[in-house]
UniProtKB/TrEMBL annotation:
It comes from Sphingopyxis indica. It comes from the Bacteria. Gene3D superfamilies: Fervidobacterium nodosum Rt17-B1 like. The keyword Signal applies. The keyword Signal applies. This is Deacetylase PdaC domain-containing protein. Residues 61-151 form the Deacetylase PdaC domain. InterPro entries: PdaC. Keywords: Signal. Residues 1-19 form the signal peptide. PROSITE patterns: PROKAR_LIPOPROTEIN.
Length: 276
């Protein structure tokens, strides 16, 4: 009888301890941050935890003077140095917008004209993420009180190996080398895109938009189909570059050929995969 009681007691105690262990709640982000901030914790512990918990960033501001919006994705928010650069860029764009808007509003009031709020709406999105690179692109809509707003583009690449922000063109030997590798394909792509809109592209060099644009002067987006290598590329062309405003913008997908890879700086060539 005594042996049975002791065995039962042991089983009850074991079950209680097991239940207590299972019921322990995981640490909240605030608790993790507090633990990482105590004396003796790794110096970058709190920063690393904050990065892992980061979500997409979106800031909006709208009033009688301006409309402003700036957003970037979670993948960028989780790279502290990149997030810091994006936050700084956001503040620069906001401050520049406010400064210009105040000046134009004062001018409008002095001359008896109506003032229309200025705007800057910018959204960064992930194009690709490979072991080495995070590729982002931005679409930007602005209005500064004229007859119409403007649509433009931006892009960047974050090099994880060197914790460094780059423009896609920085990966190539030079703008000229990039142009030699892609300009023929770009011109053909523009011609096809115009034809899809029912536009016959006059290539007369004396016409306003007869010249094929230089690829290196446009916005370059680098993408990936397998999340391992960069093997996709898009050239984004803003209004007025190859046609009047009414034509709008163009995004031309280009093949990553052997010529493109050959135009890269040596240290980046193995991170690209050309088509066969």
């Amino acid at each position: 009888m005594t042996m049975f009681s002791r065995s039962s007691a042991a089983l009850v105690l074991t079950g209680a301890l097991f239940a207590a262990g299972c019921s322990e709640k995981p640490q909240s982000p605030a608790e993790k941050m507090a633990a990482a901030s105590v004396p003796g914790a790794p110096p970058d512990g709190a920063k690393d935890i904050a990065a892992k918990e980061a979500t997409e960033s979106e800031v909006k501001l709208s009033n009688d003077l301006i409309e402003f919006a700036y957003a970037y994705p979670r993948e960028a928010a989780r790279i502290p140095d990149l997030a810091a650069w994006l936050d700084n860029d956001r503040e620069k764009q906001r401050e520049a917008l406010i400064e210009t808007a105040k000046r134009d509003k004062d001018d409008a009031e002095k001359n008896g004209f109506p003032y229309h709020p200025h705007s800057h709406l910018q959204t960064w999105k992930r194009v690709a993420s490979t072991p080495r690179f995070l590729s982002l692109s931005a679409e930007i809509d602005t209005y500064m009180g004229g007859a119409h707003g403007m649509h433009s583009f931006d892009s960047l690449v974050w090099d994880r190996n060197h914790a460094k922000r780059l423009k896609p063109l920085d990966l190539f030997e030079s703008g000229e080398a990039f142009d030699r590798a892609v300009n023929d394909d770009l011109c053909a792509g523009v011609e096809r895109a115009k034809a899809a809109k029912g536009i016959d592209w006059s290539r007369d060099p004396d016409s306003s938009f007869g010249q094929c644009p230089s690829a290196s002067a446009q916005t370059i987006r680098l993408g990936s189909t397998d999340s391992k290598y960069l093997d996709r590329m898009t050239i984004a062309i803003a209004p007025y570059e190859v046609g009047p405003y009414a034509e709008g913008s163009y995004t031309i997908n280009l093949p990553v050929t052997a010529a493109v890879v050959h135009a890269l700086k040596d240290e980046y060539q193995r991170d690209f995969l050309p088509i066969n």
